[in-house]
Amino acid sequence: MSQEVGQSGFDQRLPESVTIIDSDMKCAPGWEADKLKSNVINERMRREVEEWVDRMLEKGVKGLLNEFAELRTKTNPSARLYQHFTHNEPFGRNRYKDVFCLDESRIVLHDHPNGNDYIHANYVSTPLMSNRFICTQAPKEETVYDFWLMIIQEQVEIIVMLGDFIEKGKEKCAQYFPCNLNETFTTNDVQIQCVSVTKLPEFQHLMLQRLLKITRNGQSLNVTHYHWSQWPDHSVPVADRAPLRLFQMVRTAKRPICVHCSAGIGRTGSVVTIAYIIECFLTNSRFEDLAEILQLLRQQRAGIVQTAMQYLYVHRIMLIYFADMRLISASDRLNKFIREYDELVSTVQ
Questions:
Q1: Among residues 312, 313, 290, which one has the least CA distance to residue 71?
Q2: How many CB atoms lie within 10 A of CB 342?
Q3: Which of 135, 179, 261, 280 is catalytic?
Q4: Considering only CA atoms, which of 122, 145, 95, 124 is closest in space to residue 263?
Q5: DSSP of 261-284, one letter per residue?
Q6: Which positions fall inside the Tyrosine-protein phosphatase domain (predicted)?
Q7: Distances (CA, A) of 124 to 80, 88, 152, 168, 169
Q8: Count of helices and strands (H, E) across the chain
Q9: Cα separation of 100 and 153, whole Å?
Q10: What 8-state DSSP symbol labels residue 130?
Q11: Domain ranges of the chain
Q12: From its phi and psi, is residue 192 left (phi > 0), alpha (psi between -120 and 50) or beta?
């Protein structure tokens, strides 16, 4: 079955022929176990983690909300930093008019038949690797072909999709890959075939793993596609180990990991920021507060971590990570923070 770009009526039910697999996923994800076994958590890093958590708990939920509000005034880019975004606005290549694509870190397309070199996507580097991530908006019908040219050009091994095609009755992402086993999706001279579909049961959320075979001009590329469904736009999912497990699955990639939601900054930014902090820890890099980290990341992808709730969510997930690493333990302040976080989430969902 071939699906051409522009078709609508996307079926978001569980695809046919989905394989259910058992998992040996433990409470502490794999890289954490490796870290504990190798006994390389030095005292400096242990102390920095304790101080990081202490500062976070001292600020509390209210203080972090105020901190995030102040970040907006510090990280809004000037128009001179996103001139290609402005130039391409009339051509319909930007999904949102207020989500900017920075010139300095943008992916430049080199092999587009019509000469277009623009796509709303930026490299984001981490302590582990330069250009570790590609953060991008969800493909539009006008940019599906551009998206796959980027994937082929950058030899991307892994794509992470956070969200759904349709959310609250609004189109958030054009269909750009075949959902069902053995289906194909064609856009110009690029063909995408779904080789396998697997539901990953270790996630409370619906997480689908697809193996896609991308073919153009007789050359093929295998891409693993992770689809985290039902993550609410502008909001947060249940705080559990899902982003940590996802990072474990993609961490061995040697090529840039492509991550998108709809705008490519909120849900995308949350996952990428969590990965960035973990890599700071694993590489014994300097452990900055999240406000400083976001200022750095927003120089690469404008607007990363879009809402105050997402800002809190990143902190909450890091508490889970550090608890799994046995670097923090229960305390009255910690319990108070978790309680206030849960209460706030319940009021905004």
A1: 290
A2: 13
A3: 261
A4: 95
A5: SSSSSSHHHHHHHHHHHHHHHHTT
A6: 64-321
A7: 20, 21, 18, 30, 31
A8: 9, 13
A9: 22
A10: T
A11: 29-158+233-348
A12: beta
Q: Looking at the predicted structure, is the pLDDT value of residue 262 above 70?
A: yes
Active site residue 258: no
d(CA 178, CA 170): 20
Instruction: Assess whether pLDDT exceeds 80 at residue 309.
Output: yes
> In the structure encoding, which two tokens stand for residue 104, read together?
């300095």
User: From start to end of the chain, where are the E strands?
Assistant: 2-4, 19-20, 106-108, 118-124, 133-136, 158-162, 166-167, 170-171, 184-187, 190-199, 207-216, 219-228, 257-260
Name the pLDDT band for 17 (thresholds 50, 70, 90): very low
For 29-158+233-348, which CATH superfamily applies? Protein tyrosine phosphatase superfamily (3.90.190.10)
Reported as a single tens digit per residue, the pLDDT across 169-187 is 999 999 999 999 999 999 9
Question: In residues, how long is the chain?
Answer: 349
Q: Supply 219's token pair.
A: 């050359």
Distance of CA 22 to the CA centre of its chain: 25
Per DSSP, 46 falls in state H
Task: Reduce the secondary structure of 179-214 to three states and give it as a string.
Answer: CCCCCEEEECCEEEEEEEEEECCCCCCCEEEEEEEE
**Nearest-angstrom CA–CA distance, 91 and 142:** 9
| Cα distances (Å, whole numbers) of residue 116 to 119, 156, 178, 345 | 9, 20, 25, 42
Q: Which residues of 126-163 are buried (b: 16+ CB within 10 A; e: fewer)?
A: bbeeebbbbbbbbbbbebbbbbbbbbbebebbbbbbbb
Is residue 40 very low, low, confident or very high in pLDDT (cuts 50, 70, 90)?
low
